[in-house]
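As a warm-up, study this chain.
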Amino acid sequence: MPHLLQRAVLPLEHDPDLLPLYVDPETWTEIDEEPVRVSSRAQLSNILGRSEARIVGGRRVSFGTYFNAFPASYWQHWTPVREVTLTVRTEGPATVLVYRSNGGGTRQRLETREVTGEATSTFDLTLNQYSDGGWIWFDIAADREDARFLGAEWTTEQEPARSGKASLGITTYNKPDYCVATLRALDAAPDVLELVDRIFLIDQGTDRVDAQPDFADVADSLGETLQIVTQPNLGGSGGFARAMHETLQRPESDFVQLLDDDVRIEPESLRRSIVFGRYATTPTIVGAHMFDLLDRPKLHAWAEVVDDEPFMWRTLQQEKMPHDFSVANLRQSPELHMRLDADYNGWWMCLIPVEVIRRIGLSLPAFIKWDDAEYCLRARDAGFPTVSMPGVALWHVSWVGKDDSIDWQAYFHARNRIVAALLHSNSPRGGTLLRHSRRLDLKHLMMMQYYPVELRHRALRDILSGPEHMAAGIATAMPAARALQKEFPETVIHRDTGVPLRSRKGRQVFKRLPRHTFDSPTGLKLRWFTLSTLASHWLHAPRPENIAQPEVEFGKGDAQWWRLPRYDSALVSAADGSGKNIYTRDRAAFRRMLRESVRLHAQLKRDWPKLSRRYRRAMGQLTSPESWERIFDPSGR
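Now compare it with the structure written out below.
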């Protein structure tokens, strides 16, 4: 009996920005080595349903797109599947052409079939030449008359290694509209629900999902498949740990599929990830890619890794991300044809086998930040890989318009990165991590951003206190960090009241430079700039007139660490454009925090081996179901 691996799908929404991700009815050429669209015929009127489209007479449509090409290299590398059948159903006179690519993106035609009337074309394909990368896809070219595409599937006779279902774990904090929309999308996808055991909606907010006026209908439709779990706000790690814990109680579930709340899903992606997890040779974490919810064709995250020496995350081929599919399609993007192996995947959407949870435990009680990366590194060390799977993706609110390095989240950025390094770094004393951490302190101090430095120092002191602080403070660390904002006036966002805030010297505007090009000092100039700036901030008090009124104004993109320190005060646009922050030099705070930064980093470096042993010994306890049960119910009921 054939098993369905992947079906061709068309967008659920009437949104022209989505078309390049599903079908490519456009002609491309190259001008100055850049792909340029020269004939656009991407008309929504030709999309006739979820699996049906019109192919205009004399035109050609390619399904060599992100959501409809078959990621052959991933199936060959991570599963035992070697024989795949592509079935394409059409109506009318047309030609079906099947192509493949290699890891360098070179296209090769595999087979061609001329069809008339209602036709079912099958192509038997062997996965044995895709070790470095490559996709398989098909095009349909209509003759003089219009033709219709009626659906396509990729199937195999190979039996899966696992047959259990997946439970879905959605963690939310006061984003009920998103959650209801996700539940509706799931309810409208019966082929996905066939693979779903339970939907655990972990509601940690005050604006409850089940209190929404349109919740009752979808809840009635989903029936016992949907289970609402309410608990205090324990962050993403607490919500996802609860979903893991609940899934462990379900013998029908072989996986838990973690989903963030502020997302829009492609239901076929959920089905594909579960099927791939069933076929993986060893139990494998299957991660999804992330598109920008506010810029739908733009891919932000493909495969992500953690570099051990600085112990910092990044996207592979980071210089090529984000990738805009409205500018360059899949076939025009050779870098997207290479198989990319990930260290971890973000928990906006991530499938975790229950076997992995039983072996390595639940999430670290990190609240937010680094919980997903740490978990995948822990799984890797136990022999369970993470695959960042092409064709499996959702749309998530991106980081554009945010700067969580200077708000209350700075505490968790600092603490959890260092804790993860204590647990997993192979570099002596964390490699260059502590040096990088000190530099972050210096940059914030020179930019007159004292609040994130205070939070970072609180994080270091907590780390030095030992691993027990993580579980003990998971419900209180965030409120405490936010309460600290009141002591730092630079955190206040001054909203537009109709009377514009002004600086003494006006707005400083800098020439926009090419992407990834910086005018920051380097080498000896950087050292001299840093030393002279630190000395100036240590020795000189700000001028009174610059305290009374900001000295200069910067746009957010221009307020760089090598520009702000030259002034006593600055008016800087907030990251989301909602207002402005006023940064003012505070000599006393600068001196106190600089001394504390030196002291804390020196102590952390000195104690690193001992701390690493303590945290590694405690990891099993911190992540155990029993430990999390005490967090979920402190009363012990």
